[in-house]
Amino acid sequence: MRALSQLVIAVVELAEAEGRDLRAALRGEAARARSAFLHAAAAVAVLFVTVPLIVGGLWLMAMGLVAFLEVRLGEPLALMTSGGVVVLVGVGCLLKFRSMERSARAG
Length: 107
Description:
By secondary structure, the protein is mostly helical. It contains 2 helices and no strands. α1 packs antiparallel against α2. The chain is rod-shaped and about 105 Å long.
């Protein structure tokens, strides 16, 4: 009977120790998840502010380029040239984003 009671006590102590370890691990993971969520939320907030500013600035730059080139090349060629410049800038931004995403996945 004594051996059986010691076995039950040992099993209960083991379960208690495993429960403490599990609770500590879950708290650590929850803190990391919360930190990652807050970083992602901050990044989204920054994007909501910066993207309209960048788009507006790019639009104004394109309109300035059209006005500058219109005098020298004519309206159709000026629009095509400035459109090409805007597309090239957009492709450059997309490529930069992809390289940042790949480096974030690797690291």
